[in-house]
Amino acid sequence: MAAPPRVGSVEIYGNEKLDKAAVLRIAGVSPGQPLTLSRREMEENLEKTSDVIQAEVQGYCCVGDDVVLYIGILESGSKPFSLHSPPTEDLALPTKVDLVYKRLLRALEDAYERGVTGETYAKGYPLSGDAEARRYQETLALIVDPYVEDLGTILRRAADEPTRAAAAYILAYTQHKEAAEGHLQYALRDFDPDVRRNAIRSLEFIREALAAAPPGEDGIRKTVSPTWLIEMLQSVSFEDRLEAAKMLERLAPAENAGVLQQLEERALPALVQMAQWRVPEHALPAYILLGRIAGLPGAEIQKSFRENRRAAVLNPIRERAKAKKRFLVF
Predict the structure, then answer these.
(1) For the chain, first and last CA: distance in Å?
(2) What's the average model confidence in pLDDT over 159-179?
(3) DSSP class of 211
């Protein structure tokens, strides 16, 4: 029987009342020790306490031989990332779309087994490196436009989670970008994590298409709304937070003062916690956003991160928070 993996580090987020030592003790986990409890056992340990409403544990493998644990908690009195109640209607994908989608899934699975995993995005939607899968993806792009509203209805009302996840995936292929965005924004708060993940993925293609389009008559270039992505930074889910931060990094360049101001006002503590995570690729998106909020040049943000001088960004953020009478612990 294989020995349990060892816990390398534990990243805790969402906590304001409970310190890290208390969360580790209640969860029953310790860095440097074997991981003997299941994910659900750790979550149940935390949710038994009066201070924790919800907990979610995610393992990341691996840093060296060790597992990194991400523990998200929603404390009593804290504002949750609000999800929709699971819908209840018996709805299915439109027959033509469903047929192509199922064939695409089979082709992608076959390609994966043969080691073909690459994608290109030059046409504004994902195209597999596998010829058969690519043919079905191009077919989706040809047939999906008349069904955008049907797919939006599925996202709002279909009880079956894989069907909703499929609708979110397929909307990446439509030319009706603005209509698709509204449906995908709704799906960002779906009860099922796979639906949320596909919604973010498709929204990224919508964002790129809108960014490439010419500005409107008012001279303003349309883009994806950041509202629910910013709210997603409060989620107990590690993947929600990470994927939202990645997209917000692309959505909020240094010159986009409006989105950066929203991030500072509504998500500063969350970004600070994430920017201190030990796995570099998980910490970097939040760190970049904090550097932009602090007004630092992009080259300095990247250089300080590479050289493990994160105080170069965190200290200016601490001073900004102090000047605005915000309370940050780090």
Answers:
(1) 41
(2) 97
(3) H
Does the pTM exceed 0.90? Answer: yes
Radius of gyration of the chain (CA): 21
> How far from 66 is each of 5, 21, 117, CA to CA, in Å?
7, 20, 26
Determine phi and psi for 241, rounding to 5 degrees.
-65, -45
Residue 172 DSSP label: G
Residue-wise DSSP of 100-149: HHHHHHHHHHHHHHTT---EE-TTSS-EESSHHHHHHHHHHHHH-GGGHH
Q: Quick one: fold of 6-75?
A: Ubiquitin-like (UB roll) (3.10.20)
pLDDT at 216 (0 to 100) = 77
Nearest to 224 by CA among 183, 285, 279: 183
Domain ranges of the chain: 6-75, 95-212, 255-323
**What confidence tens digit (pLDDT) does each residue in 92-146 have?**
999 999 999 999 999 999 999 999 999 999 898 999 999 999 999 999 999 999 9
Residue 8's alpha-carbon distances to 224, 279, 282, 283, 310, in angstroms, are 37, 11, 15, 16, 21
Whether the per-residue pLDDT at 193 is higher than 80: the answer is yes
